[in-house]
Amino acid sequence: MNVSGQFPRYTASIAAPHAGGLSLLQVRDFVTRQWRLVALVTALAIIVGIAYLALTPRKYTAQADMIIDTKRVSFSQSELATENRIVEDASVESEIETTKSEKVAGVVAKRLQLVSDPEFVGSGESLKQRIFSLIWSIAPAAEPSSEEILRGVTSQLRANLRVTRLGRSYIEQIAYTSLDPNKSARIANAFADAYIEDQLEAKFEATRRASIWLEQRIGELRKQASDAFKEVQDFKSQHGIIIGVDGKLASDVELDQLGMALAKARAETSQAKAKLDRIVHVLALRPDPSKESLNIPDPIVTDALSNPVITKLRQQFLDDQNKESEWRARYGVDHQAARNLRAEMAALQRAIWDEISRIAESYKSEVQIAKAQEDSIERRMNEVFQQSGSLRQSQVRLRELETASNTYRNIYETFLSRFTQSVQQQSFPSTEARVVTYASAPAGPSSPKKSFTLALATLCGLSLGVALAIARERMSRQIHTRAQLEELLGTSCLAVFPALAKKRSPGGKGASAANAVAFKQIAGAAPFSATAEALRYLKVAIDLHPKGGKIVGMVSALPGEGKTTVAASLADFLARSGNRTLLIDADLRNPSLSKMLGYADAPGLLDVVANQTPFDDLVITDSKHKFDFLPSATRIKPSNSSDILSSPAMKQLLKSVKSNYDYVLIDLPPILPVVDVKATAHLFEAFLLVVEWGATSTDEVVKAVGTSSIVTERLLGAVLNKADEAVMRRFEGYSDRSYGYYSDEKPHSETV
To answer: Distance between CA atoms of 318 and 687, rounded to whole angstroms?
Structure first.
């Protein structure tokens, strides 16, 4: 057992060891519970199958094979030619549907004179028609006409016909089912012949209609193409449109050339501006002439670096600079020769900067020339664009007329070519289908199939029986397993009390006497029995409560679930274990606990709360069960029981007894019928929910727990009471050995 209250034996993981899937043991238990229903449904399905075999007449199926030939024999220029063609899947399916068509079926019916065959007509009213006439009193139908008879025969022929494709081949299998084996073969062969004849007639008719239509259409297209070409030429003459070799106007060609020239001029202008900006930046670095500076100018400009004048001046400056350094070191700084060299160096420096300024002036001139050229090209481009603007709308209309003219001419040429081919090359009257194998009379019936029918009936019966069995279990809303209760509440199922043997009570009749008998049996259970072990689990759950809950409310969703018996049994077990235990009957409207223990007329809880009677004067120490008991009087049934139980006096009572007892158990009213538990839930430290096995529905349990959030938060766990262990083992999948650990105690078939 862990701190959270999960008990090893009663957790969902143990109760459903194969939660991820069905185990063989669970399947066995399901079959054990529902085998009668499954067997009954299966037997009924087999009986229906046998009846079907006995009542259904024998039918015979004959089959003819027909191939859709992929070769066509044609006549071209006085020679026979064979054309290979590819037949797509859609074409094969279309041929199959044609074979089953009403037209082909009508030809078969007339050729074999099936309108006078008893199998198709004159067989009298069917069972379905007789039943409908009895239910709705349908008047007898009038004598059908010949067209109605033929339509009925055709419908029956199509209903019994099956045309399929053999794999991915071009073979059609034409199968017909009839009561007579010879008749089925004749009808299958007749369908194949009728289909071939229908294809020949369709080709003749299609060729005749196509020739007439093509001849009429060619005359219309010839006139349309001629009119469209004349309209194009007239439009060009009216608007003076001249089209070049490449299909463009002259203005458009000039615009394209001007566009490329403008882009080139703009690039040259940008390049010239960049060179000018660079040399202006270099000139800004020219030193002040008033200040002495004999550093050699270093202009990083392409033309300046390659200029021969600047190169020569720089070289002369460097030579004078070397001489000046040598003479200054030899004769001193103020020597006349050194001064003359410095003066000459200053003159060279000014000459270099003057040459750079001259280069800058040439850059300015280049920028002006490039800008003027760009403006000139742009002005010319605008002029040409304005001149070509008037022709653009006309050109759009011209394109439309040319497109229409070309379309009419292409259509005319296409139709003329097809008409010429149809005249010069006529197809032979041949069809793409031929019979490969003619049908013969079958040796045996094709339906009904005995083995298949019985196997299908058995399988359907088993499937339906299993489905009904699963639905039967799913529709059950009662709780039968620990895992079901734990999943429903989200908490542990702390204990399971088995159903006890039903004994007659010598002291009286009714629910109180039955509870007394059940209480005696539980209290007198063997120390190592499953019942005693369940009580130990409840004690450990209370002891491990994280907040040390001593005041425990015993609740249930509905009356009669055994809450009172479990409360008294737990109090007896705790008292016999040497713990100071107080049991309070707080069900003021139906004090069944007081009746069960024999204190029905004794004053108790109502007197303590309402009349302020001292607790010590009213508490009863049960000499037999060793616990203290505070009864509830049966003489008075207050209507405001919730107000009494939630009063300050009740709160003070529970506070005072908490320090004097190890365990305080309160038998509360059921949750759903009355509001007492919801009103007093805040007074108790923990709750134990008692649920009757196989009786209380899941909806009632969920509704009861959801009535008060305090009950949900302080719920220690649930107790499954009055469980039929034999049935429960089948639901949970436990083996009988899991119960033999405790004692030789066996579950009883009758509950209290």
So the answer is: 109
